[in-house]
Amino acid sequence: MEINKLDSTVSASPQIVPADIAQIRAAGFRSIICNRPDGEGSDQPGFAEIEQAARDAGIVARYVPVTAGQISDADVAEFNAALADLPRPVLAYCRSGTRSATLWSFHAAGTRPMTDILAATKAAGYDMNGVARRIANGGRTPTDTGDASYDVVIVGAGAGGISVAASLKSRKPDLQIAVIDPADVHYYQPGWTMVGAGVFDAQQTAKTMGSLIPRGVTWIKSAVAAFEPDRNAVILEGCRVVKYDRLVVCPGLKLDWDQVAGLKDTLGRNGVTSNYRYDLAPYTWQLVQKLKQGRAIFTQPPMPIKCAGAPQKAMYLSGDAWFRNGALGNIDIQFMNAGGVLFGVKDYVPALMKYVDKYDATLNFFHNLIAIDGPGKTATFRVAKPDTDATEVTVDFDMIHVCPPQVAPDFIRVSPLADAAGWVDVDQATLRHKHHDNIWALGDVMNAPNAKTAAAARKQAPTVAENIVADLDGRSAVAQYDGYGSCPLTVERGKIVLAEFGYGGVLKPSFPSVLLDGTKPTRAAWFLKERMLPPIYWQAMLRGKEWMAKPEPLKAAAK
In 291-404, where does DSSP find H-type helix? Predict the structure, then answer.
């Protein structure tokens, strides 16, 4: 692990894991401060896991979470109080260490010259010049000038961000593009369902971010704090400022584990798992293999969520494993869905119901998970059926697969780019912002009424790229997105119901029905999911090769 010394008693580091605690103790640290909110990343252990490992090693751990790039006076005060209270030396950590170094810089500003603070943080590997400007500007980051400027700035290097960067570069190679993302690793998240079923290894779904950023595109490894669209500025953590001519916003969404009481404290143990986290998907398969009798619960929260079929995919593949090993007759499968239907596009429901019957799964609609007692092996649901008073029911479990509630990232929800519900407000055809003409959005974070899937981003990226190029050339939008999304519903090992649809649930099959009928379970669809889609993702979509994803001409422009 990486430990960066700020002064004689305080150091900063990137995200730590429980296995690092022995090294931290050996280095002499007596306390740990966590400055990273739980649920910020899909590969992030919760603070409860860190705290338990620290306690076992005789180290005090304190939770002082700070939203990336949004450090307030209250955050600084809480950090100062923690430093005053905890035994030293102290190791503070966040995603990269930048938030912790920023908090320390504000802490030290009252007693040390700014030149000393800048020298110390620079030696530790952190650029705090933006913090110095904020302090000198009375606590506000000035955005009249920037630390860097680009033709196009892309916020987020997930499926949408890297794809749109590659598509733009393929159209205009000389375009100056920057991608902003703090993550070191890029994940093929659609593969985690297969990890949870023992089909893929987790490592198959991860590649270093640096290996995927398109050639000629600048990677700014930082988190975004805020947007100032009237000044064409993005403010980063550490109070640095990046200016743009055009902006693309696609940071994905946030897994809000905090909405379920007790969930964070029991994830990864006590039979509580989730394929929505990289490090937990293998635990799903461990639980499935181990369970020979008892109750298995699979939950789905209120929409929107990414890959709306993923909660039931976990149920089907687990049921198939129990069917194959002979345990199914001794396992009570319960699907707890906060919504009122099994799947939002009715054409696919008959095929899915055959598997619900095959695995003898009980469907419980309008059941929303609100609390988990891991050691007690109980889950509590709020039951809110139409035209009835809401009630609560507590159910025992031996295994529970949780799909967490999901929201837009904090820095999006509080920004001037968001609608009343917190999502980036775009025209659903052109994906251009409704109020800022030089801003576009794609992926899970925007408010178009489509399924939030990687397949949707595959279609959206060329649309955004085509429309940005048209705008650069002084033309109106020329491409439109039709709401396409795909959900390969893994109903058993070897067969998939390939749901493909657009806005309004209109079916959008990619293949003639004689080759692949998406409304029925087929081996061809499984082959596509297992063998074809991963290389298409890594080697085509993220490289700007728009196979079966050419942008559709905007109807108004085509006349």
Answer: 310-325, 349-358
Nearest-angstrom CA–CA distance, 83 and 390: 45
Q: How far apart are alpha carbons 136 and 133 in whole angstroms?
A: 5
Scanning 513-554, the segments in alpha helix (DSSP H) are 523-527, 533-539
The residues annotated with a catalytic role in the active site are 307, 487
pLDDT digits (tens, 9 = 90+) for 223-274: 898 899 999 999 888 888 999 999 999 999 999 999 999 999 999 999 999 9
Q: Is 31 exposed, middle or buried (0-12, 13-18, 19+ CB in 10 A)?
A: buried
The secondary structure of 498-511, three-state, reads EEEECHHHCECCCC
Residue 267: both structure tokens together:
């994830």
Roughly how many angstroms between the first and final C-alpha of the chain, as a whole number? 59
- Cα distance between residue 491 and residue 55, in whole Å: 43
Sign of CA dihedral 284, 260, 41, 300: positive
Give phi and psi for 206, each to the nearest 5: -130, 140
Query: What DSSP string runs through 186-254?
Result: EE-GGGHHHHTTTSS-GGGGEEEGGGTSPTTPEEE---EEEEEGGGTEEEEGGG-EEEEEEEEE----E
The residues facing 33 across adjacent strands are: 62, 92
Rounded distance between C-alpha atoms, residue 186 and residue 375, angstroms = 33
Closest CA to 43 of 184, 237, 194: 184
Bridge partners, residue 440, by sequence:
248, 432
pLDDT at 140 over 80: no
- Give the Cα separation of 384 and 390 in Å (integer): 4
Phi, psi of 354, rounded to the nearest 5 degrees: -65, -35
Q: Mean pLDDT over all residues of the chain?
A: 94
pLDDT in tens, 146-193: 889 999 999 999 999 999 999 999 999 999 999 999 999 999 999 999
517/526 Cα distance (integer angstroms) = 12
| CA dist 417 → 152, 443, 518 (Å) | 17, 15, 37
Counted residue by residue, the chain has a size of 559
Give Cα separations from 150 to 176, 216, 306, 417 (angstroms). Answer: 5, 12, 30, 20
**Contact in structure between 477 and 286 (CB atoms under 8 Å):** no
What b-and-e string marks burial along 462-501, b requiring 16 or more CB atoms within 10 Å of the CB? Answer: bbbbbbbbbbbeeeebbbbbebbbbbbbbbbbebbbbbbb
The first and second tokens of residue 414, run together, are 């509080």
Q: What is the pTM of this model?
A: 0.85
Q: Which two tokens stand for residue 544?
A: 């700007």
- CA 261 to each of CA 371, 381, 404: distance values in angstroms, whole numbers, following the listed order: 4, 11, 11
Q: Strand locations in 397-484, DSSP E?
A: 399-401, 406-407, 439-441, 479-480
Q: Is the pLDDT of residue 517 over 50?
A: yes
Could you give the domains of the chain? 4-136 (3.90.190.10), 148-253+408-558 (3.50.50.60), 257-406 (3.50.50.60)
